């Protein structure tokens, strides 16, 4: 593995437009379960893909609201791990390192990464389910007076119990500006490091192929094989919290 890390460091040292794509695996070592990890405790009976949809919210707004509040509070308690911090060091070495993330936590920003593109939104942000004041209608729940046990708060604009988390649900469109920039960055990259994603969900899962087609070297950091493994030029088969600090060490003079 040491040689592969050295090989990756040599590639990064001469990279002009490296880009990173991350998934839930990069946050796992901070204590945030990956999207397809078994949910714990009272939520283990639910399938995330059954909860993360507009239909689920309309069917049972309190259940969906409570699930995201559980995850929001879980994310608020955790800190960036060695993998997040290593990406900040790699950005310093390379001068630029845009991070396209599928994660809805804000651990890349907390670690100090300066250019984070959230494809699936951010669990700290909320909006009106009906976007009653325009798409989106952002709502700061810290300004609302609501009963935590009474399901979604009332929208301050349309006065319906319609506040929801501002993340992308299954069947919803991704934020147009974010996905457009992600494709542009991927098509212009000379190196793409793909970290901690199962590569199952498009359009994020298309980005490594866009980069590859444009001539980029694709490096995958993941203990498991994924559909992206077949196009990776280098696979660092291990946890991001172990592999990325080794990469930083190999980059240091
Ligand atoms: P997944 O849970 O699908 O995949 C996590 C990946 O991280 C798996 O391939 C694991 O093998 C890997 N992994 C686990 N621990 C790791 C570690 N310590 N270091 C590196 N990799 C590790 O999560 P995502 O691929 O992010 O979208 O899921 C993509 C999207 O699927 C989510 O953003 C979500 C879901 O649909 C929406 O909700 C719109």
Care to describe what's here?
The protein is an alpha/beta fold. The chain is 37% helix and 15% strand. The chain has 10 helices and 9 strands. Bound molecules: 2'-O-acetyl adenosine-5-diphosphoribose. The site of 2'-O-acetyl adenosine-5-diphosphoribose has 25 residues, from helix 2 and helix 10.
Features:
alpha/beta, 253 residues, binds 2'-O-acetyl adenosine-5-diphosphoribose, single chain, elongated, six-stranded parallel sheet, 9 strands, 15% strand, three-stranded antiparallel sheet
The gist of it:
With 253 residues, this protein is α/β, with parallel strands linked by helices. The chain has ten helices and nine strands.
Helix and strand topology:
Blueprint: H1 2-13, E1 18-22, H2 25-28, H3 48-51, H4 54-59, H5 61-77, H6 82-94, E2 99-101, H7 107-111, E3 116-118, E4 121-128, E5 138-139, E6 163-167, H8 176-188, E7 191-195, H9 207-213, E8 217-221, E9 234-236, H10 240-251
Parallel strand pairs: 1-2, 1-7, 2-3, 7-8, 8-9
Antiparallel strand pairs: 4-5, 4-6
Helix pairs in contact: 1-10, 6-10, 8-9
Bound molecules: 2'-O-acetyl adenosine-5-diphosphoribose.
The termini sit apart by 20 Å
**Ligand kinds:** 2'-O-acetyl adenosine-5-diphosphoribose
Q: Order of strands in the sheet with the most strands?
A: 3-2-1-7-8-9
The whole-angstrom Rg is 19 Å
Percent strand: 15-25%
């Amino acid at each position: 593995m040491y040689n592969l890390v050295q090989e990756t460091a040599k590639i990064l040292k001469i990279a002009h437009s490296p880009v990173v794509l991350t998934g839930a695996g990069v946050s796992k070592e901070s204590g945030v379960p990956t999207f397809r990890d078994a949910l714990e405790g009272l939520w283990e009976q639910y399938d995330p893909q059954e909860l993360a949809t507009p239909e689920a919210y309309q069917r049972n707004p309190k259940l969906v609201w409570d699930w995201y509040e559980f995850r929001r509070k879980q994310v608020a308690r955790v800190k960036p791990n060695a993998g997040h911090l290593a990406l900040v060091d790699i950005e310093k070495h390379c001068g630029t390192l845009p991070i396209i993330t599928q994660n809805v936590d804000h651990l890349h920003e907390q670690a100090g990464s300066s250019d984070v593109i959230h494809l699936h939104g951010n669990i700290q942000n909320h909006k009106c389910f009906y976007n009653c004041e325009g798409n989106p209608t952002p709502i700061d729940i810290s300004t609302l007076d609501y009963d935590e046990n009474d399901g979604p708060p009332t929208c301050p604009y349309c006065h319906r119990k319609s506040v929801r988390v501002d993340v992308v649900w299954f069947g919803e469109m991704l934020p147009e500006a974010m996905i457009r920039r992600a494709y542009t960055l991927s098509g212009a990259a000379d190196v793409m490091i793909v970290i901690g994603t199962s590569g199952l969900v498009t359009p994020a899962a298309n980005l490594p192929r866009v980069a590859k087609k444009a001539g980029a070297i694709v490096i995958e950091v993941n203990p498991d094989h994924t559909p992206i493994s077949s196009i990776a030029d280098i696979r660092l088969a291990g946890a991001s919290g172990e592999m990325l600090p080794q990469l930083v060490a190999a980059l240091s003079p």
